[in-house]
Amino acid sequence: MSDTFVWDEEREARLGFDEAVFCGGKTPAQVELILERAIDADRGLLLTRLDAGRHEALRSDLRERLDYDAVSATALLGAPRAVRSTGGVAIVTAGTSDLVTAGEAARTLRYYGIEAGLFADVGVAAIWRLSARLGEIRGHAVCIVVAGMDAALPSVVGGLFRGPVIAVPTSVGYGVAAGGRTALHSMLSSCAPGITVCNIDNGYGAACAALRILGVQR
Amino acid sequence: MSDTFVWDEEREARLGFDEAVFCGGKTPAQVELILERAIDADRGLLLTRLDAGRHEALRSDLRERLDYDAVSATALLGAPRAVRSTGGVAIVTAGTSDLVTAGEAARTLRYYGIEAGLFADVGVAAIWRLSARLGEIRGHAVCIVVAGMDAALPSVVGGLFRGPVIAVPTSVGYGVAAGGRTALHSMLSSCAPGITVCNIDNGYGAACAALRILGVQR
Amino acid sequence: MSDTFVWDEEREARLGFDEAVFCGGKTPAQVELILERAIDADRGLLLTRLDAGRHEALRSDLRERLDYDAVSATALLGAPRAVRSTGGVAIVTAGTSDLVTAGEAARTLRYYGIEAGLFADVGVAAIWRLSARLGEIRGHAVCIVVAGMDAALPSVVGGLFRGPVIAVPTSVGYGVAAGGRTALHSMLSSCAPGITVCNIDNGYGAACAALRILGVQR
Amino acid sequence: MSDTFVWDEEREARLGFDEAVFCGGKTPAQVELILERAIDADRGLLLTRLDAGRHEALRSDLRERLDYDAVSATALLGAPRAVRSTGGVAIVTAGTSDLVTAGEAARTLRYYGIEAGLFADVGVAAIWRLSARLGEIRGHAVCIVVAGMDAALPSVVGGLFRGPVIAVPTSVGYGVAAGGRTALHSMLSSCAPGITVCNIDNGYGAACAALRILGVQR
Amino acid sequence: MSDTFVWDEEREARLGFDEAVFCGGKTPAQVELILERAIDADRGLLLTRLDAGRHEALRSDLRERLDYDAVSATALLGAPRAVRSTGGVAIVTAGTSDLVTAGEAARTLRYYGIEAGLFADVGVAAIWRLSARLGEIRGHAVCIVVAGMDAALPSVVGGLFRGPVIAVPTSVGYGVAAGGRTALHSMLSSCAPGITVCNIDNGYGAACAALRILGVQR
Amino acid sequence: MSDTFVWDEEREARLGFDEAVFCGGKTPAQVELILERAIDADRGLLLTRLDAGRHEALRSDLRERLDYDAVSATALLGAPRAVRSTGGVAIVTAGTSDLVTAGEAARTLRYYGIEAGLFADVGVAAIWRLSARLGEIRGHAVCIVVAGMDAALPSVVGGLFRGPVIAVPTSVGYGVAAGGRTALHSMLSSCAPGITVCNIDNGYGAACAALRILGVQR
Amino acid sequence: MSDTFVWDEEREARLGFDEAVFCGGKTPAQVELILERAIDADRGLLLTRLDAGRHEALRSDLRERLDYDAVSATALLGAPRAVRSTGGVAIVTAGTSDLVTAGEAARTLRYYGIEAGLFADVGVAAIWRLSARLGEIRGHAVCIVVAGMDAALPSVVGGLFRGPVIAVPTSVGYGVAAGGRTALHSMLSSCAPGITVCNIDNGYGAACAALRILGVQR
Amino acid sequence: MSDTFVWDEEREARLGFDEAVFCGGKTPAQVELILERAIDADRGLLLTRLDAGRHEALRSDLRERLDYDAVSATALLGAPRAVRSTGGVAIVTAGTSDLVTAGEAARTLRYYGIEAGLFADVGVAAIWRLSARLGEIRGHAVCIVVAGMDAALPSVVGGLFRGPVIAVPTSVGYGVAAGGRTALHSMLSSCAPGITVCNIDNGYGAACAALRILGVQR
What we know:
Number of strands of chain A: 9
Oligomer: homooctamer
Strand content of chain A: 15-25%
CATH architecture of the largest domain in chain A: 3-Layer(aba) Sandwich
């Protein structure tokens, strides 16, 4: 392990993305090693999929240096960047359980200095809620739509919002919705023109796509 | 074959549904045989999935006795029943290619004396179209929603219409939408409470479900 | 979280359904918060998928106010509504393990004042059991059929019962039956005309569909 | 090709099954070559999946020597064996379109001298039809059940028939039933104990299984 | 629960199979209730999928009355039947992990008085092991073949054994073999004529099929 | 049909996208009707999935007014817009058969006045071809990557190109690659951060996404 | 098209493989263009998936220059290389319909100067045929095993042959075997250690893998 | 159990592979029994999928005799063989989580006396890392490529490395990548000619394939 995690300076220069640490499947010891290296190098760091159990298991001196958010299972190491003024990103979610993935997107954007607007629980089974907040949503340059189950929301948003729409399916649900394939396929099949889609639960990827569009990685 | 198609009088008495003839996979000769028997017995008959090619291939004297509709691929034999007054059924579709299945439902209902209201091309990527016709739709007792692709429409309708909502996925689409599984799963996963679903392209089944609800099979 | 759960008065007015709380995936703390709000607002509440572990973990003062049923994993808060006279709903199940989902349907109906008739363990591998109770089942206006594995029961019931038949597949089973896809597909493919289907294990949805048909949400 | 089709005398001796020719995917020329060899060797031959088009395309002198059945797409070469008295095989089908596969089974059995009893169109959506013929069916030693769509029939038969039940799913159907996976999975998940299953549309295999049970291959 | 488990005397009379108890998914309390009833009725009982954990959790006085086998996760209540002389059943397995399912089949047969011959670990990657025991296997009337992974064994056995061959796929394996679908499909696709197949891990069903063939249920 | 195709002026105003006509599944008569209406209204029109057969079948006076491209199966009606200067879109493809979808994207962009740069046949099995053209590709604001089979190209491009990357899977291929699911899943799983994905073969959608990003719909 | 097909001299130098032309999905005109270029450049060429229809449609002067093989759907342009002495490749097939893919492998090897040994129709349902030819097969350095349906053959061969075994699934079959997924998964799950697998029907790839192992691309 | 695990001397002689013990699904007691037998027989032994929990649970006297590696979950019993000089095997991985499977391959090779070269974390989203180490990789006779997610790496390596390339998909990933099917399909669909593939996570199999190629099993 110790030989394989290095800051890829070349990649950071080319793409403008810092290395992020996907903690899913990593042991606490592996996460601790990475944190120590980042601290030694005096670098900030974004950690995703750091669930509460793994977070609790980290050495306390390391854990205390993290800005941890349990809902999104993300942690930030180091002082946050200053918030930039960019016209911004709206994150729209269908249900409360989509907040995990929406939070991962929001925290990733915050790491790069973007404060996203969050519009939660405006799923299409209660379409009047979305209508009520449409003006606000339209005030942003990019819209990330997070939805599970039937994922009908991106189609409605995509018919009302003119800018780029990035859809993120979530694995929330039961029966045929379990695991997120239904939401994913629904988004890919959307009748609204020009919606693009990320992998299931990939809030981090949606945020990176928004950063590429805004051109503000660094 | 000649031994296996008989009017199941008992079934008709129990359920109130006449025998319907699913022509998909049947040869013209097989369809002709059934038509002859129905004419001999002086019975009306509903034929579904009778595509234009099969219809053209029927013996002309039989073909001329049919009320054929190419869009829905259905044919009616015999004088139509009088239209009943029931409070009615609304059929709502997302796109023009859903008219095949919507038509199968409408013709089945008409066979039983119900004139359905058709609300076509009100998919959610243009939500204002649906809003404009919502009052009319609400004037019906039962709503059949036909949609392919992402099938977001039933969720929106199910959040606005108080009565029974029967959703029918269609096989229209390409990529992950091809074949109708995405639409089916999307409908089953709908966040709107109490929507029920039929098999892909099953307009006939949706009409029968509406007839069961209205209690007007015969 | 605190900002996203609100009583959607508009939805309740439109559809006649109260907000129900799907507890699957919610933490005890999230459930407690919702219960407190409902108590403050002096509202009744239906909770589904509240498994025994989560129920046990609730704060005891809140837990004591709940009418909890372990088999169906549902809880009711507040005094139950008076039972209405409606002609009624029959719930028919194939096997004992289908009682979880059947119970969710029954409890949802009870929340809205409907006392359903339960006909358990009448699967088709013992068809004489069903025959013995058919007269009773026919005395109801709507029939919900709950079945896992091969889900042959709805086809048989759908050929004997004239009114609306709502089929609910369950995830019970092993091998190709595990997860409920086989039961779902079997129901969607039923030869009995006019059967409609809900998502796997969705007893709540089946009950809502019955309420829409009976028109007795509120 | 000419080097690879030979009578496997050893196999015939071991299992008692003659070589059968699966014509699906073979060109008329390939079938003709095999027929010529069989005629040269003065052997009888069973051909399956010989659809009408391929049959028509065969050289007329060869075609005339075949006992061809269009419904089951099978042909027999040579004089048929005398019918044996064995207690017999019942073939039960759910719908008329299952007759293709049922016919393949019946013709295979006939090739080996067994005249099967055919009980067609007794699907469970009309359960009284099956009841009416149950006594007759029970008079056989082995029961082959052929069904597509939801394939509910084998479960009912398996609960009423005491001897071996061999279930054959058919690819008949549309939507989720298309291709026969739903019928296959439904049969494998049957609640009736001791039902066994063949591949989709495999009437030939079901007949061979019955022959193994009866011990009458040769 | 208490109302739904009853001895179905009619079924037992028709099919000759006693009620068996599938313990997968049942709580210890549910199993205990059934055991008590069987003891009260002075009946023997076969329990399947009673894993070690559930077995340990049973009330000790009940547990002590069971003849439990941990490998096959089965338990027998009551004195075993006398072994009958029938010509017998051979159970052939590909690997050691198939012994769970093979054991379930063997114990079910034993419950009905049949002592099966077990031929373990004769998978085709070591074909000489099978050859060495072929003579013995051929001494039985029926052959049950249990295999996971690529399930090549039934094809080889089916080409060497003349009597009925019942194939049971197991869920053993990883990657594309995990869960048993590969083994199931492989068995259904076997080139050896007349092999029939049971659901994944369904040793009980295979035994019942053998009992139907031998006609020795009771 | 005649009632269901109308210019949705409101949608055009909101999103800036003209109505486009997806000809897959439409009859020549239906396409002719739409063309006549567009000509009457003096509007330009983009038609996609108009394959050579359907194009040939159009009435000659209508066909002659179309700018048709057989490779991409697209047609433009009306004078093209002037080309705008926008920084541009690069379209990168893995193989020659991806040119169908790439062409659909390029023609859609051209309809809106964007002349895309095409970089064909630079798949990763010949990585030096991509390297040779990387400088040119980087000169564009947005990159659309079209690939079938294993779709490894977007991951490589996504690691070298800083701006937005829109990946389009194609249905080209055989075996596990047939239909495009492998390419789709591969793109969704890409390790390069911030790549977003369209439905299989959806070149039109990718172009619309690029237009949303550039903000140049109209 | 004309800009995108070029001889990739660098690739040829690196890997030692000539460009091969996959004709599946290419029009005759596209194939003719490539042939003309090869003739102009005085190069040999291997064409795969050139079915009889496409071959017939080629311009006669070009067609006459091809060494065409209808069974394998391959064509060679130019004088064949001299046969090299390498220890060789054995190609083993389970059934006659596997000869298409086996032929593609054999012709690819021949293009590079390797004359493979073909061992056809030695499927495991007749294991004695394989045994009879095992000595010959073992005389080769590499073994390619081609099989469809249950693909049991590679496991048996892999347990008897010491050298590299390359397994190629074929799409031959019906029911669950149709398309080749069952054969593919069966091969990947083989219990014989160290078997590797190619895509379905990929005889060309298997030959290339053998060439890599023998180190004789050029 | 005790009767079914034996050293298959014949297999070892034929193939040159020692029996290896797949511990996934085995209890510690079963593993201990095998270890005792190997010690009694004075044999070395390779154990795979022996996760940390199972390893910890082994009897301490047995555990102490093992050379255990937690990352690859493998254990070696007995003195290692001397390292042979063979030209060697390169193992290339895309990400750090692929080290589990890469390690299983490396340890298997080491068991047979081959010291593989490990090239970790050279995934294609950072293509320059691979370029930097290409010279070294090319110094080996065989290349094993281990990758999860989109598995783009084997296509790139297969276009740059002339010798045999064995690709191993890993189950690492989330969303559509979870379980390894995407990686598997991507590898099978690779455009680089002559790549062959093993089952998901099957590092052991890849090593055995390399040993077959090198001819150094024993």
